[in-house]
């Protein structure tokens, strides 16, 4: 993805997941924004986005962070919100093991208190080690944690699967975590 599209993706992440009000954008209860309103709000704030660029970001983003509705008139982020939205996620049975990428400086805290969602709606988990490695590598040398998701699920803990394949949980207590390698 070229630099302009990466910049647009980051802009969309900020304003569709965390701060729509900063550009005068209103999301509905499910996190949808009118495409026309988004393009107008972005232009008013000095960050014009061409509709074709918006489509390209949605279609080519490697993490599939955004989705159009069936009509193509609305857009939303599919997970990772810090603002209150209802994505309509249903409980799902996870694979036996999921993974979380982090860095060494957070490891002691995580092993002590588990994975907590912080300001987001959920803890984000990966279905494979490589994805977790990429996520952890954004902040330094990655540390990969295995999550005993099957046991968590059998113990009554809820898991959800976002539209883009990210597994979500409210929290992961430390007894379900182990460090790989």
From TrEMBL:
<dbReference type="InterPro" id="IPR022928">
    <property type="entry name" value="RNA_2'-PTrans_KptA"/>
</dbReference>
<comment type="function">
    <text>Removes the 2'-phosphate from RNA via an intermediate in which the phosphate is ADP-ribosylated by NAD followed by a presumed transesterification to release the RNA and generate ADP-ribose 1''-2''-cyclic phosphate (APPR&gt;P). May function as an ADP-ribosylase.</text>
</comment>
<dbReference type="Pfam" id="PF01885">
    <property type="entry name" value="PTS_2-RNA"/>
</dbReference>
<dbReference type="InterPro" id="IPR042081">
    <property type="entry name" value="RNA_2'-PTrans_C"/>
</dbReference>
<comment type="similarity">
    <text>Belongs to the KptA/TPT1 family.</text>
</comment>
<dbReference type="GO" id="GO:0016740">
    <property type="term" value="F:transferase activity"/>
</dbReference>
<keyword id="KW-0808">Transferase</keyword>
<protein>
    <recommendedName>
        <fullName>Probable RNA 2'-phosphotransferase</fullName>
        <ecNumber>2.7.1.-</ecNumber>
    </recommendedName>
</protein>
<dbReference type="InterPro" id="IPR042080">
    <property type="entry name" value="RNA_2'-PTrans_N"/>
</dbReference>
<keyword id="KW-0520">NAD</keyword>
<dbReference type="InterPro" id="IPR002745">
    <property type="entry name" value="Ptrans_KptA/Tpt1"/>
</dbReference>
